[in-house]
Amino acid sequence: MTATVIDGKAFAAKVRGKVGEHVARLKADHGITPGLAVVLVGEDPASQVYVRSKGKMTVEVGMNSYEHKLDVNTSEATLLKVIEELNADPDVHGILVQLPLPDHLDSDLVINAIDPAKDVDGFHVSNVGLLGTGQKSMVPCTPLGCLMMLREHHGSISGMNAVVIGRSNIVGKPMAQLLLNDSCTVTIAHSRTKDLQETVKRADIVVAAVGRPEMVTGDWIKEGATVIDVGINRIDAGLKDDGSPKTRLVGDVDYASCAAVAGAITPVPGGVGPMTIACLLANTVTACSRANGLKEPEGLTA
Ligand SMILES: Nc1nc(=O)c2c([nH]1)NC[C@@H]1CN(c3ccc(C(=O)N[C@@H](CCC(=O)O)C(=O)O)cc3)C=[N+]21
Fold this sequence. Notes:
Elements: E1 4-5, H1 8-30, E2 35-41, H2 45-60, E3 64-70, H3 76-88, E4 94-97, H4 107-111, H5 125-132, H6 141-154, E5 161-165, H7 172-181, E6 185-189, H8 196-201, E7 205-208, E8 226-229, E9 233-239, E10 245-250, H9 255-259, E11 264-265, H10 272-291
Parallel strand pairs: 1-11, 2-3, 2-4, 5-6, 5-7, 7-8, 8-11
Antiparallel strand pairs: 9-10
The structure holds 5,10-Methenyltetrahydrofolate.
5,10-Methenyltetrahydrofolate (GUE) binds at residues 50, 96-99, 121, 141, 232, 249, 268-270, 273-274, 276-277.
């Protein structure tokens, strides 16, 4: 079997199109422009690239983008003050604090200072609790993007065996909650799981979110299973013609061997990554609609 490639890049463009339509309606009918504020502390090059890309796409769908770039040595008090101001600003409907934060800042404390209604990352404890109890919440962008692709590919995923590899608060745990809410039988596997390979082999749906380049190989995968690769790993790829080092982006899944047995698979790049950003925009327009007591867009949240 050769797997169907789930084109996250194309699907993300469709999601952004829907977001754009809803933004246009909010403007035309209510004179409201959704706004997303991104806070970046420090100058981590990868983070800068992501923040730039988020800002560009925010503007492309017709929303306002506010960027707050703070010095790497910013104190917790200063950062909390910025968040307080964004919480109080009626033009800001979504707030994202780029992670990871520098070591001297307590990310739990900082995240929990964000107004839960503006927490478009879905990381605030209130949103975590709401999601865990199946109530309306802000849903973390990466797991939401994975869920959207699974629903699009399968229609219903009810009753399927899902194995999530990775137990992070950002991906693994919320992903498991979403799959459970959609009536999957869910296993969360991680670095201490015994017989990881056998566990994965039973899965109809595998979500790999461990941060280990190409760890999941084709011999782990059940024939016809759907494989969602959340990993974004930049690995060595020899030297360029001019002798400088070259890198390559790979997932947590060994694509070639898994694509040979899976029924469907997401590529890296062009899979989960673009969906993450599309879902961030979707969450922002959802937050803006809720803040104004308006009907929220359909099909853009869990
Ligand atoms: N508060 C917070 N929320 C986040 O959502 C968040 C964060 N912090 N910190 C960093 C990670 C990383 N992240 C990505 C988003 C898109 C791509 C993406 O679009 N990747 C492209 C490739 C990009 C490339 O070539 O490097 C792709 O997979 O096709 C990747 C990674 C969001 N993050």
